[in-house]
Known about the structure:
Blueprint: H1 14-59, H2 61-84, H3 88-102, E1 107-112, E2 116-120, E3 126-127, H4 132-140, E4 144-148, E5 158-167, E6 170-180, H5 181-186, E7 198-203, E8 208-211, H6 215-220, E9 237-242, E10 248-257, E11 261-268, H7 272-282, H8 286-323, H9 337-395, H10 399-424, E12 431-432, H11 433-448, E13 456-461, E14 465-466, H12 468-491, E15 498-507, E16 510-518, H13 530-541, E17 545-551, E18 554-562
Parallel strand pairs: 13-15
Antiparallel strand pairs: 1-2, 1-6, 2-3, 4-5, 5-6, 7-8, 7-11, 9-10, 10-11, 12-14, 15-16, 16-18, 17-18
Amino acid sequence: MTSGFPGTDVFRGLTFRVLLxxxxxxxPIGLISVVQTREIAEQAMVNAELSLLAITEQASSTESxxxxxxxxxADALASVVxxxxxxxxxxxxxxxxxxxxxxxxxxVSFSTIDGKIECVSSGIASDVSENPIxxxxxxxxxxxxNISLKPSYxxxxxxxxxxxxxxEGDLLGFVNMSIPERVFREVVExxxxxxxxxxxxxxxxxxxxxxxxxxxxxxxxxxxxxxxKWYAGQSGRVIRATSLQGDDRxxxxxxxxxxxxxxxxxxxxxxxxxxxxASTRLNLVxxxxxxxxxxxxxxxxxxxLAIKHIRKLxxxxxxxxxxxTLPRTALGGVVPxxxxxMEEAFVxxxxxxxxxxxxxEDSLRQxxxxxxxxxxxxxxxxxxxxxxxxxxxxxxxxxxxKRVLQRLQDRILSLATVHKSLYQNDNLTRVDxxxxxxxxxxxxxxxxxxxxxxxxxxxxxEAIQLDPDDAAPLTLLVSEAVTNALxxxxxxxxxxxxxxxxxxxxDPEMALLxxxxxxxxxxxxxxxxxxxxxxxxxSRQLNGQFEIIENPGSYTLSVEFPVPLKSKxxxxx
Length: 573
């Protein structure tokens, strides 16, 4: 990672932890801000809805005044009609006079409980017992308002306001006031800065009574979700719904005559009156935006002031660990004092490590030189002993004495070969077993195998790394085994004899030595058994498994022993 950005293990990084604690620190403030903003938004929305209701009330004030005046007049007429209803002529004359005086109503009448209208301002009696509006009056027996689009006594639609006439709890009939639709259209509308899309009044049964616009157009603006009468129970509220023509609308509902007539204003969802509430709701996201902005600033500051320099210092440390080179340049830039002190401490520590390593390398080099010199001197001394023994062999008086001295000389030369391999090798802790075996076997063959003997010698060695403690017994074991093989193969048919010496891995940490030779029918000089005892002793010293395999015409000695991959640790006490 060369950039200053977080790596894969971000959750354990300094940046994540600082940002986490910063988030926890900002959480109470954010919660308070969200709660307060939410309350402000809710209050703003309430104020916006109250404004819609106020405008609705103002817009419907003319219709409300006319309708309430009609209900008031009907209530007043009911008390008078109760006194004169028996005299149809006088009653009709009174209603006619009231109609002319008010100049507001198309017809004023009193209908009995059985549907007879004989007291009527027009003076024309009629029977409305089968009229749907009258049936509804009888069924409800309460104040109501209904729209009659094609009345028999008028060429235009009328709004019929009906008030029940009761005497001592008994229903006698209804006083009816018919207001022509043109009256509502001719009234002067209040001056409003913002007007609704549509304005309607409707009764408790959900029937549209009056509209500011065309009735068919206004019918398309009513809510599609519920029937209009459902909204009669939602008076004093602002409701959001979809109109019949599929537009999103806001509806403000107010009672004109509670329980009887209601006014509904229709507004587009993006009305300026609702914009304040909507904008306030948008303010709810501001705390989240501020929190994210704070985290971004904190992340940038941490990365700029600390993380970037810490990572650069880490790369310098890794580079020193791999290459043992000090940083060429300092961190640079505006680096905090604490990180500068860390860099200075690292550079000082690195310089001290380099000095100590230089001293250790010098000491190790001197130690290796001394060890090589020791191995060289030991090898020279062993060769000197071998030379003295060679002089002694030439002066020996008996063959047995010569043979014993020659065997002893071979063992000494084998040890000398080990020391020679050690001081010639750069690694004093390990020696190549294959090279060592090849040199020892060739040395034994050059002395013990006469030229032109016809004996075939085969050697196969793998580069097995041995500890010096294992190299010495292995060379001595090979020396005894090869000497034994030369003795047996010479007793047979020399022109057809063979010797095979192999050293190979059987496992990553196991090696196998085999020395095989052919055998004949000749007599073998009986030995003392010292060689066999030495082979057994050297096998044990190697922690190996010793085995002799004798078959017709062949003799094989095998030793399997461990060869650890790591060098043995030797402690100096």
